[in-house]
Amino acid sequence: YILFIWFCSVCPTVLHSLKYFFTGSSGVPNFPEYVSVGLVDDVQTDYYDSITQRAVPKQDWMEKVTGYLPNYWDRETQRCQNDQQVFKANIDIAKRRFNQTGGVHIVQVMYGCEWDDETGVTNGFNQHGYDGEDFVAFDLKTKTWIAPTPQAVITKHKWDGLPGRTEGLKNYLTQICVDWLKKYVNYGRSTLLRTELPSVSLLQKTPSSPVTCHASGFYPNKIMLFWRRDEEELHEDIDHGEILHNHDGTFQKSVDLDVSSVKPEDWGRYSCVFQLSGVEKDIVTKLDPKVIKTNWGRTEIKPETEIKQFPTVVVLGTVVGLLVLVVICITAVFICRERNNGERRVSFFNTIQFLIVNTPACDTLSTVCVL
């Protein structure tokens, strides 16, 4: 429920992101009531929870921020302690709105910004969720709040009635957040601006199963992975997987091809193509039965090499590890990104810092308020 290749001829253009995730919970035994996590380009940079009561860096290069602000971590600790109290109050408010009493309840928040280092285009987002459902989100273009559920309408009217805060929030998401993102990217450039190519494997569980093209070990995550026949990209009989994290900071992705209707003599016309932003040469893997890794008799798999032969196992281990990290850090925050007509849409499940619990109205510089 809660919920290698190294080479760097040219640094790729990347859509950089700065995101902060906050989770307040009640009724969850042996788990912090409040957790805060920061990520730059999906790399965890800081952490705080209500048990440790201290904001700490998770990357060595994040220590550089104290050269710019010596009291940075003390300031972050104070902010998190304040937010912790507000999240506790917001859970009580949400429970009253939904006519709930006991049980497990979770308030989730995500805010941050994105910056394309090639075009200079930026985007910002501030989103809230309650018990795994969208609650309220900030529309940057209209500077108004969107309430997808009736219980959030009160919050929408309350926050829409604070024009000074909405202006300050827009300024934060489009200016201040982007400036900090650029600083963080510069601090961690040796990590965040690196380029790594993946290993690409073809996998098939049974003779009637789809053939999976699995790319693992690439960085950054601005990639294209697709099947094509001859020189034409395929869109039918294709199932795209999500980009997932590896334990070493790289990424993995898979795309399935349904071969049930493909004639044996036509297999050679199919190939899997991996493209990495900033890298001119594609990695092309032909659909060849001889190179497909299976567990149904084509290749004898020895126990000690099973993990190496079957990246699916690696995928499972990585997913489990990622889920543990998510539980520890943000209690099942899930972000789904889709591309619609070239625009990025970030699904809710999130929001932004709040003010102190006793604050009746929002400060114009705050990114979050009492519901």
UniProtKB/TrEMBL annotation:
Record InterPro entries: Ig-like_dom, Ig-like_dom_sf, Ig-like_fold, Ig_C1-set, MHC_class-I_related, MHC_I-like_Ag-recog, MHC_I-like_Ag-recog_sf, MHC_I/II-like_Ag-recog
Keyword Cytoplasm appears in the UniProt entry: no
Family in the record: Belongs to the MHC class I family.
Listed GO biological process terms: immune response
UniProt entry keywords in alphabetical sequence: Glycoprotein, Membrane, Signal, Transmembrane, Transmembrane helix
Species of provenance: Myripristis murdjan (pinecone soldierfish)
The protein, known as: Ig-like domain-containing protein
SUPFAM superfamilies named in the record: Immunoglobulin (SSF48726), MHC antigen-recognition domain (SSF54452)
Signal peptide region: 1-17
Taxonomic superkingdom: Eukaryota
